[in-house]
Records
---
Amino acid sequence: MFKAYAAEAPGLPFKPFEYDPGAMRPDEVEIRVTSCGICHSDLSMLNNAWGMTQYPFVPGHEIIGVVEAVGGAVTHLRPGTTVGVGWFSRACMHCRQCMRGDHNLCAGGEGVIVGRHGGFADRVRCQADHAIPLPAGLDAAKAGPLLCGGITVFNPIVQFGVRPTDRVGVIGIGGLGHMAVQFLNKWGCEVTAFTSSDGKRDEAMAMGAHHVVNSRDPAALGPLAGSLDFVISTVNVPLEWGAYIGALAPRGRLHMVGAVLEPLPVGAMGLIMQQRSVSGSPVGSPATLATMFDFAARHGIAPVTEAFPMSGVNDAFERLRSGRARYRIVLEAGR
């Protein structure tokens, strides 16, 4: 029996929960969880905000742990290997998307916390291809948030060919944005951070931002008109999107990873005349996750985290709801 923390219905507190995972598939690994990050997506799933949560619900998709057992078809992982597991736990491995390396776009992909139980537990299973070994030099205690928040902002840097010579912007210096600033700085870019919080100005600069601008002041974007090659938005609230599109250079891109629920009012002419683009992306493939781990280890990039014991999951969720976390929360197993 796996021991976990589950909510019985939307918004209810987490309670100890046990379940039988059944027989392990030949292509799976079983992982002893050592820590698990908390993502805002866990909160959305807890509240069934996306209409696909099944209860009892065990969240957790920023999992760090140690392989304890491998299925008969697994040849590349061994017990004792420290690995990370993110949003996806399985892909079909034969569709066009999987065959070209876009496992994160597989229509038959399985989410770790969608229709099954996640990492707020002592153990978890996944398809072995989605268990990514941690490289030497990456702090396992802090690495969990890289598996969702980190890869969400790293993936578009790779997918859309952001160059070291680019001038880039990051909207929102929170759980995702603070990692985007670090990645883009080490990528070689000139980074402008957009934040509505004056209290984050110094922190953003310390993380690698070269400039900080008030994200809710369209006038502050005026001097940036036509200058930014790539702007990534990590916020889930509507802003004056026209002003950000106006800040894009020719061929510039406004890229959305924050789940803004309201439609984006985008004028076609502002895109057409300067060949600008608006796009979005989810988390990355296993290969991109491995690349992100290597890049983070090489450059000393790590999420800024607060630690809670796994048994304190309800206190940790209250911290998340309050918006006071700086900047990601990690639950430590065995506490």
Note: The chain has ten helices and 17 strands.
---
Amino acid sequence: MKKKDFHFPPLGEFRLIEKILARNTPLAETGPESRFWIPAGDDAAAFDGWLATKDISVENTHFRLDWSSPEQAVRKAVVSNVSDISAMGGAPRSALLGLCLNRNWSEDIQSRIADAFSEELAKRNITVLGGDTVAGDTGMFSVTLIGSAARVLRRRGAKPGDFVYLTGAIGRSRAGLWLLEHGKAEAFPELSGFHLSPEIHEGMGEWISRFGEARACIDVSDGLSSELHHLALSSGVRIEVEEEKIPVASGVGDFLKKEGFPAFDFVFNSGEEYQLLFTSPLSESIFCKMQNSFPITCIGTVSEGSGVLLRGRNGVTQNLEAKAWSHL
């Protein structure tokens, strides 16, 4: 039987698998550019040059279908994994996919989820290698993503004298979540929309890695305050950042003013932002010339010592407490 003549049996699970594989990218018969092994402790681990990461997205914890569309929920699940590979300086190559479909979801929702995974993975040239599908009382997406990197980035590479950089701008995800929780999503759709389906510069990590002058890197998935501490602790250095230099995303300021909230918590403790935090000995002017229409902002410096210091807008410097986003 020719491959093009093959069809899955007319059973629900097989129809779902057929939808997911409908746009599947052919498996590239090429290995990683270099060989390295990295244990747990960074945004991804590595074996023989292959980067590996896993994120799980659970219904009513990471996504709610009364807030988002099935397509948005799937896109967010994929982006969270791609961001981990990007933070290691890599590009995604293949994936293992585990789906637990809520048995109360309609056939239409199940079909849209399968189509969304097919589309989101295909447009990133990510090959589905296999996985599993089940049904349960709660929906869940489990993605194991494999990537490769020409030069791997880790959390432990920061050195005294480095500058601290942040890609993009932050604050939208926490603000968007608050709006959704309080029934005000329509007041700032760009903020609630970002929380439901973040759009990020997914190739930035690979670009930074190939540029060759980044030393340490992490993605902002749990909050800027937490990620700064991860870099400082992993690298055995002190990091000092300036509050007035932190790039705040468009719309966040208006939201804070309208609701009467101080900016600090929504900027430093906003999880699921998926921007990159990295260090480099190069000055900001060089990155400004090299970047491809995507902002990279110098927010601080690295020195000898330990911990994270914050210089406030009033000029007073104090310890910055880590307040990680946590689902536990």
Note: The chain has a mean pLDDT of 91.
---
Amino acid sequence: MKDFKGKTAVITGAASGIGEAFAHEAACRGMNVVLADIEAPRLANVEAAVRDKGAEALSLVTDTSKKDDVAALADAAFARFGNVHFLALNAGVAGAKGGTAWDTAPAEWDWVMGVNWQGVLYGVQAFVPRMIEKGEEGVIEATSSIMGLNTGTTAPYNVAKHAVARFMEGLYYDLQVAGSKLQAILLCPGPIATEIVKSTRNKPQAVPVEEGGLGGRAKIFHNWLHEHGMAPADVADMVFKAAEDGSFYVHTHPEYIEASFMRRVKGIVSEDKLPLELPPDFIEG
């Protein structure tokens, strides 16, 4: 996809972080922008900002874990602009307390899997058939993570991001079989300077959190991200360039990907077992 001007982008998780950066990049490229997020005040601010850049914009408060919300988003986008050419299924949450597979709260599993994984599924189901029917070039991007390619603990975030990665790999082939002009992109970010560690601000009431709010380890990681993480604008630039050159995988930190993914592959193909030690920590190297 080479030409963006006058076309339409739909972005979930658009009120902050990578999604907000996608919105600004799309506006700078002359696109119409449809913004979706669960945070109404922040969403309104981003809509105003992209309008200031000259973009035609529409925002809709959306809970991506709810199929009806995502369907309503698709209806609004197609009704307003006629077609969608760049679909960024980017909404994500980090989780709350976490824990082992057997003691993480069911409500946390439902929340994290609902937003991070089912939001991607619902987005594809709601948008892609209509995008294919239009017969135009387009892009479907989904945000996974380096955690979607490596191995490690059973944190719901990691499991959800693995699901996104495998689903998008499948979508890549589905689109070819269908003979469509649509391109799939899988974004696998490493450390990015976003607010995702603070995503409990949007959690359902049933999801338990650490006493006193953001736990000590999470607070350290949040601060580290903002000191060392890649700027979201740089991530957006990489994704739009991938749309231009037809890439599927977008790795923001290939050094992390290679180190963590290769140790998993080695276990699969040559050792028949997983490494006993956990993957290296971002902060500790």
Note: The CA atoms of residues 131 and 216 lie 45 Å apart.
